[in-house]
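Quick one, tokens below:
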């Protein structure tokens, strides 16, 4: 595959996904500036945490500087030690695999399933049941001999992973489950909010997420001890805040009041944002449904998807054009699109020697292209995207 240089898009382009700032952001941030409460303590941090806990349907929420920090802390809470292994999705943004390495453990990559493109829960079960053996009071990877200590399923693109089989096998082997719900705020699995199903859930509020604080994250949990420990670890592990005594290595991972203020304002619009994303997805679906060679994202009957990042698959055999060629043609028409992430079992940054094969992730990576889907995408811009794709594919499909 050719190396892509996406470059800076022109000013009058249709962006892939940009923040939607339309409410109380200015008011709440100004309030922080006016009152001097700009740092990591303040009423907006508390309020943002309450809003997230309510939305995630968990007892506790701890605001962090970003989603990766929340994942790092969650792995520490789960007791993951150096040289342990953690089962994680192969088809995801790299952050969860990196967080596993931050604690000195090793990721075990499990393939995506072909229907909703999420981590294959049957693959997780198969790895734990057949790729591991019970030895010295723990589950050990047959290939590496290392202890498997946690499962970190990633809900990608705004659709939930099928968690029930993962939760069942996790219970069987007493493994904590950390949900990477960074792309899944507002989505539901069998009626339940993502992030509330495992032992901890992590959210991200970076610039492309469904709500943003510019950069930010949240760890949610129902476990009081985990919540207290997360608060402790994210604030430099202060055992005595006057004498600055520390009994553990902590982190400077707390979100600031300024950013939390923005988060509170964004949360006020979450329901509208989810609804708008679903409308955008519906319009794409209605426009592309009869196109040969395009596979559209599906919503499982057990899921409520936000369609956070609207992504389609291109079958080159049928369309006569691959996803990267389409990407370049769209860029020439000032439409920004992008492929999915390189599957992490392929990444030079990580070692996949102990992992099972991940052929679906490879195929999805080759075929996928994400299309403009900002909450603020106008109907006319979406029509422009649809018409441009229709025009490109009608030419290439007929000549293939
Ligand atoms: C699946 C996934 N995990 C983790 C992260 C990390 O979140 P953050 O960028 O807030 O650190 C992101 C987003 O960037 C993500 O998409």
């Amino acid at each position: 595959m050719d190396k892509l240089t996406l470059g800076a898009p022109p000013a009058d382009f249709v962006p892939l996904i940009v923040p939607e700032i339309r409410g109380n952001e200015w008011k709440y941030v100004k309030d922080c500036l006016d009152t001097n409460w700009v740092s990591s303590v303040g009423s907006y941090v508390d309020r943002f945490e309450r809003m997230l806990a309510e939305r995630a349907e968990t007892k506790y929420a701890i605001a962090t500087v970003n989603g990766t920090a929340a994942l790092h802390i969650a792995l520490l809470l789960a007791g993951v030690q150096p040289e342990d292994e953690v089962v994680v999705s192969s088809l995801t943004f790299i952050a969860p695999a990196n967080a596993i390495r931050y604690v000195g453990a090793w990721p075990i990559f499990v393939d995506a399933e072909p229907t909703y493109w999420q981590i294959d829960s049957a693959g997780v079960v198969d790895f734990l049941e057949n790729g591991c053996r019970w030895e010295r009071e723990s589950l050990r990877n047959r290939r590496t001999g290392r202890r498997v200590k946690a499962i970190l399923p990633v809900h990608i693109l705004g659709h939930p992973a099928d968690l029930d089989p993962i939760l069942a096998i996790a219970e069987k082997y007493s493994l904590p489950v950390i949900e990477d719900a960074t792309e899944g705020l507002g989505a539901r699995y069998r009626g339940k909010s993502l992030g509330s199903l495992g032992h901890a859930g992590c959210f991200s509020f970076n610039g492309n997420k469904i709500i943003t604080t510019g950069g930010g994250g949240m760890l949610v949990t129902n476990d009081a001890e985990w919540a207290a420990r997360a608060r402790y670890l994210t604030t430099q592990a202060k055992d005595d805040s006057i004498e600055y005594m520390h009994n553990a290595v902590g982190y400077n991972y707390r979100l600031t009041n300024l950013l939390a203020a923005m988060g509170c304002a964004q949360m006020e619009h979450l329901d509208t944002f989810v609804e708008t994303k679903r409308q955008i997805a519906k319009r794409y679906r209605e426009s592309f449904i009869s196109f040969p060679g395009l596979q559209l994202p599906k919503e499982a009957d057990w899921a409520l998807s936000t369609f956070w990042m609207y992504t389609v698959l291109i079958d080159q055999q049928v369309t006569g054009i691959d996803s990267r060629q389409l990407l370049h043609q769209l860029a020439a028409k000032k439409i920004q699109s992008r492929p999915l992430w390189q599957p992490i079992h392929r990444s030079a940054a990580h070692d996949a020697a102990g992992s099972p094969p991940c052929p679906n992730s490879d195929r999805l990576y080759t075929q996928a292209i994400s299309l403009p889907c900002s909450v603020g995408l106008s109907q006319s811009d979406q029509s422009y995207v649809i018409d441009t794709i229709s025009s490109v594919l009608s030419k290439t499909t007929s000549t293939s």
